[in-house]
Amino acid sequence: MQVQADPVFDRDLFLLRQQLLKISEKYDVGDEQGKNITYIERPAQILTGLANPFIDNVSHLGGLAGGTLAALAVRPRLLSAAPPT
User: Model-level pTM greater than 0.85?
Assistant: First the structure.
């Protein structure tokens, strides 16, 4: 059974060239001779990009606070477990 597809995609080699100075990522897709066949547009994720550093910092602070609380909770047990001198 032969699958019918657009003849544009009936090739083994595609060349991608990124368009610069764009908010969203855009790529020109070309054939072996460099002629443009189509383009690909990847939407910009501005809010995700802005929120990632904030979320990362909050998670690090949470881990630091949790580690500090765990150390404070274990400290009295460690001191009382010391052998008498």
Answer: no
Residue 1 lies in a domain: no
Query: Any idea what DSSP says for residue 45?
Result: -
Paired tokens of 84: 């008498």
Count how many domains the chain has. 2
Tell me the sheet residues that pair with 17. 28
The distance between the two most distant Cα atoms of the chain, rounded to a whole number of Å, is 86
SS3 content of the chain, % helix, strand, coil (to 5): 45, 20, 35
- Which tens digit of pLDDT belongs to each residue from 38-73? 888 887 777 777 788 888 888 888 888 888 888 888
Residue 16's domain comprises: 7-42
- How many Cβ atoms are within 10 Å of 47's Cβ, its own excluded? 8
DSSP 8: G
